[in-house]
Design a protein that fits this description.
With 203 residues, the chain is α+β, with helices and mostly antiparallel strands. It has helices at 5-27, 61-66, 164-167, and strands spanning 28-32, 46-51, 77-81, 89-96, 101-105, 108-111, 114-115, 141-145, 150-154, 170-171, 175-185. A hairpin with a 2-residue loop joins strand 5 and strand 6 (108-111).
């Protein structure tokens, strides 16, 4: 017996909704930038799409083939549960990987004794002179060794970011996904759309 056009439309709608819910729950997530800690790359009012599958562990070979992922790399911009309050989501850049020895000297990050080149970083205050002593962890920090299964996270706006320098390491189990692109962006008001930022890739 042939299905009616109404029934076919209803079934198509149900499938579309189910796929959308699956994508929302397991594949993608929307995220809005709440603060200026990632300026100048990401601004307050930017709305991002987060890839939730990229770092998810694959249990079987088939799952790995159908849903390919990769390990977290230094420089990835990721959304994760805030270790101090896991009900909140944070967005930062991965700076220290498990096993890394990390140190901050005159605001410069050193990984295993080597300076890290960071074209994305913004500083709001001058870098102190050579030999100047300070207990400001925005200027000098560490050295610390990143434990297994943990990451050292930092905001690009280094002088205005609440990150691993204050609350410690982020567990790998708290990672929610990688920031992909900006799908919407507003300025001081919702109607102030920043058209040039739309669909910009997060770098």
């Amino acid at each position: 017996m042939k299905k009616s056009a109404l029934r076919e439309s209803f079934e198509s709608l149900i499938i579309a909704v189910a796929l959308a819910l699956f994508a929302r729950t397991f594949v993608f997530q929307a995220f809005k930038i709440p603060s200026g800690s990632m300026e100048k790359g990401l601004l307050v009012g930017d709305h991002l799409i987060i890839n939730k599958m990229g770092f998810a562990p694959a249990v079987t070979g088939l799952e790995r083939a159908l849903l390919p992922g990769r390990p977290i790399k230094r420089g990835d911009v990721i959304v994760f549960k805030y270790p101090v309050d896991p009900t909140r989501d944070f967005i930062k850049r991965v700076i220290g990987l498990p096993g890394d020895r990390l140190e901050l000297k005159r605001k410069k990050v050193y990984i295993n004794g080597e300076p890290l080149e960071e074209a994305y970083v913004q500083y709001l205050t001058p870098i102190p002179g050579e030999g100047e002593q300070t207990d400001d962890r925005r200027v000098a920090y560490g050295p610390v060794t990143v434990p297994a299964g943990q990451y050292f996270m930092m905001g690009d706006n280094r002088d205005n970011s609440e990150d691993s320098r204050w609350w410690g390491f982020a567990p790998a189990t708290y990672v929610k996904g990688q920031a992909l692109f900006i799908y919407f962006s507003t300025g001081s008001s919702f109607g102030d759309v920043q058209w040039r930022r739309l669909f910009s890739k997060v770098r």
